[in-house]
Every structure is written in C-alpha cells, then in structure tokens.
Design a protein that fits this description.
Layout (H helix, E strand, L loop, with lengths): L1 H10 L11 E2 L2 E2 L5 H11 L14 H8 L4 H12 L1 H6 L8 H8 L4 H4 L11 H13 L4 H6 L9 H9 L6 H11 L2 H4 L8
Antiparallel strand pairs: 1-2
Helix pairs in contact: 1-3, 4-8, 8-10, 8-11
Length: about 200
C-alpha cells in the first residue's frame, strides 16, 4: 500500500489538493481529466517528481505517506483538542461534528497533552495542530514537503512554512504518537467547517 500511496502523493495532487488549488488562473482543474489536472498542478507549482525508495524505509514517513489525505483533519483534531477549553467557553464545541467531539473527549496520554513553549491559543485549530505535527512533517523529504501546502487553504501557506522551520525543542517521536492517536476512523470520518 505504501508504494501506491507514495505514487498517488507524488503524481496525483488533484486527489488531495485543497479547493483553493483546484484552479490555475481561469483554468478549472476539476473539469480536466485527472492526468491533465495532475500535470498542470505539478508544472504550476514546480513540484519535484523524483522518488527515492529509501523514503519507504522510515516508519514515520511511511505513516505520513499512507495517511496523506487525512493530515488536514488530523491537524484540525489535534488543534481543537489543544484549544478544547477555548472552544467550550466560546460555545463552539456544539458546532463540531461527532468525530471531533469524540476526539476531544477521548483519553490521551498526559505526555502528549502538554502545551509547547511557543504555542498560542489564538491560532486556528488547524494551524495549532500543524504546529504539533511539525517536528514529524519537517522530516519529510523535500519533494513531499513541497506538496504539504496543497492540503491546506492557500492563505495558510506562510504559516505552514513557519511551522516546518521552527521545530526546535520538539520531538518527532511525540508528533508521530499524536498522529497515531488521531488516526482512527471514528474521528476521521466527518469534516467540520472551519471554526473562526
């Protein structure tokens, strides 16, 4: 599965690209055959297409590749959990889908729930979660890191770059444990609209 998943991530960006990336100028990529839409995305964003099979030897990278399309949802859930008190205080908990509500109530090891030194509760849940996964995502090979912004709204591009560049003092092992914690169908099956 991982080899197929890697091929899909590398050569099939239209399958996971956020809606913000489904047009290039006046060209609506959703109206094109998938092979042409993928080619246009790869060319437009100058995505590297070389694959190093050694990527598949690193378990943490394999997990990211296998679950690539759920990374935005995982970031949202982790960020919402980090900001659980704020969401409840502001009456936004009830607007979450049942999968997100379940995740916010699920037991999580105390070592995974500790707030990082530079994390703010004022950022959107998706970006807060991205900051939590950044130590793991920063270890992705360049060709995969290039594709990461395509998963999120275009407006978050700068924040994504900052998160991936400021992972000092955090551990990739903790980020992988967080990704494993959120990677259950009961949490991932539905999407919640952005909570601003």
């Amino acid at each position: 599965m991982t080899r197929q998943a890697l091929m899909a991530v590398m050569y099939g960006p239209i399958s996971y690209a956020h809606d913000d990336y489904r047009t290039i100028g006046e060209l609506d990529l959703t109206r094109l055959p998938a092979c042409l839409a993928n080619q246009q995305l790869i060319l437009h964003h100058r995505l590297t297409t070389g694959i190093d099979p050694a990527w598949l030897e690193v378990p943490a990278l394999r997990r990211c590749i296998d679950r690539w399309s759920i990374l935005p949802r995982a970031c949202f859930l982790l960020g919402a959990r980090r900001q659980r008190a704020k969401l409840i205080e502001m009456g936004r908990y009830a607007r979450l889908d049942t999968g997100a509500q379940r995740f916010l109530c699920a037991p999580l090891a105390a070592s995974l729930a500790v707030r990082g030194p530079h994390e703010s509760s004022d950022v959107a849940p998706v970006l807060a979660g991205l900051n939590m996964l950044a130590p793991l995502l920063a270890r992705l090979p360049g060709a995969l890191r290039q594709r990461l912004p395509l998963l999120f709204p275009h407006a978050d591009r700068t924040d994504i770059a900052c998160a991936l560049n400021s992972t000092s003092g955090m551990y990739a092992g903790r980020a992988l444990a967080l990704l494993r914690a959120v990677d259950h169908d009961e949490f991932l099956t539905t999407n919640t609209p952005p909570i601003g």
